[in-house]
Amino acid sequence: MSLNDWPGRAAAVSTRQWPTLEATAERAANVDVLEGLILLGSFASGTPDELSDVDLIAVAAAGGFAEAWDARHRLSEGSLVSWDHFLKPEYQGHNWLTHELVKVDCTVVDPDSGSKELAEPFVVLVGPESVSERFPHISPETVRERARKIDEEQRRQVFNLDEMDPGELIDWKISELKSAVRRAMTRP
Fold it and tell me: Residue 159 has what pLDDT?
């Protein structure tokens, strides 16, 4: 199995997350009910850093979403811990943390439902390039605006650690850790 090439690949190969990305792509290629694997975010744009998450979309074959969701643990095989986010009937989140503390955010999607949109930058890592055509496309500006609104909402929320499920707690703590490390890195 070989990964499809993209302009930012050299930057990705040089990161500590590369072995995780490569192994996940290999596992996805061996799941018959997946038509493809799409890479998003900083790895797709060629701007990852040592703290970047690996953001992926596992694309279910037509009519195969339930089977693809059932096979999700094959993607995170060997991870330290994995957890799910139940988002919508047409797409679900399956995240994991590797033993090397690489966080992978993977959404298993039925793109034919039209409920999950795709914006640049993205790279079809596994499968035909045409797999991206099964998604409605939106602008990066729309994605940034949505992210800004979600961030504003989360800042106003009061979080009760006792009410968070383990996955939510891991997501939140990793986000806090990354913010603290990035702040420390910018200090003189």
Answer: 73
Residue 1 within a domain? no
Encoded amino acid at 140, one letter:
P
Residue range of the domain that includes 145: 9-186
**What per-residue confidence (pLDDT) applies to 1?**
64
Q: Which residues of the chain have pLDDT under 50?
A: none
* Spatial separation of the C-alpha atoms in residues 149 and 178, rounded to whole Å: 20
Domain total for the chain?
Answer: 1
Within a domain: 156: yes
Look at residue 102 in the predicted model and tell me its pLDDT.
97
Residue 2 lies in a domain: no
Instruction: Determine the Cα–Cα distance for residues 39 and 25; give it in Å rounded to an integer.
Output: 10
Residue 168 placed within a domain = yes
Q: Supply angle C-alpha 166, 78, 16, rounded to 5.
A: 90
Please report the pLDDT score of residue 161 as a whole number: 76
Helix, coil or strand: residue 36: strand
The torsion region of residue 88 among left (phi > 0), alpha (psi -120 to 50) and beta comes to beta
Q: Across-strand partners of 105?
A: 55, 95
CATH number at residue 103: 3.30.460.10
